[in-house]
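Worked example 3 (structure in, sequence out).
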């Protein structure tokens, strides 16, 4: 006898999950925010939970060997200071802030500075065209042959570009505009941000 399929519903505002559809989310109070996750989406959740919920045993901090981390500079002293002394290879860093405070300007300036030190940088924009970014780069003195622009919001297309070339730094502006075709929910929803972040962490 075939095993009965288990349905899983998720609130697109806060990520609350339930085994049946609910009109109102018991966690955040949003109405009509639950959607059913398909089999692929449920598999992503399982894989994510495996990464997060690995069983381990606590040990004394004095017994733990220190990682030998070789940071590299962004050539921006204040930015390096915030990151603890520079950028850690293989790390994923989220830059947050209110709209209009200058996140995109800061990251484009950093992209140009990193490229000047000999590293290949991919700047992915889901909000602006390459022409708009070029105008800002002119103003910021961030033009460099090793800064590559990609105007794209589909995760799978971004992943294909990452496979095409050996980029050392990838900047995505912004995570809330990117979507995966494996999910039916809208860009910026909890499911989309979770899967995209998980995939980017795995790539890093």
């Amino acid at each position: 006898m075939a095993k009965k399929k288990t349905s899983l519903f998720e609130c697109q505002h806060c990520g609350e999950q339930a085994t049946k559809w609910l009109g109102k989310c018991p966690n955040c109070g949003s109405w009509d925010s639950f959607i059913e996750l398909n089999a692929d989406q449920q598999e992503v959740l399982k894989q994510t939970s495996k990464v997060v919920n690995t069983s381990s045993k606590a040990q004394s901090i004095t017994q733990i060997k220190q990682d030998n981390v070789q940071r590299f500079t962004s050539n921006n002293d204040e930015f390096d200071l915030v990151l603890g002394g520079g950028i850690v290879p293989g790390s994923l860093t989220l830059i947050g802030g209110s709209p209009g405070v200058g996140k995109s300007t800061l990251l484009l300036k950093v992209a140009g500075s990193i490229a000047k030190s000999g590293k290949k940088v991919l700047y992915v924009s889901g909000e602006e065209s390459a022409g708009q970014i070029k105008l800002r780069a002119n103003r910021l003195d961030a033009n460099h042959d090793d800064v590559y622009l990609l105007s794209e919001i589909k995760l799978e297309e971004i992943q294909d570009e990452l496979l095409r070339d050996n980029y050392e730094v990838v900047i995505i502006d912004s995570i809330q505009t990117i979507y995966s075709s494996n999910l039916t929910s809208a860009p910026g929803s909890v499911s989309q941000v979770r899967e995209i972040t998980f995939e980017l962490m795995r790539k890093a």
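Notes: Strands lie at 8-11, 17-18, 34-37, 121-125, 147-151, 169-173. The first helix runs from residue 39 to 52.
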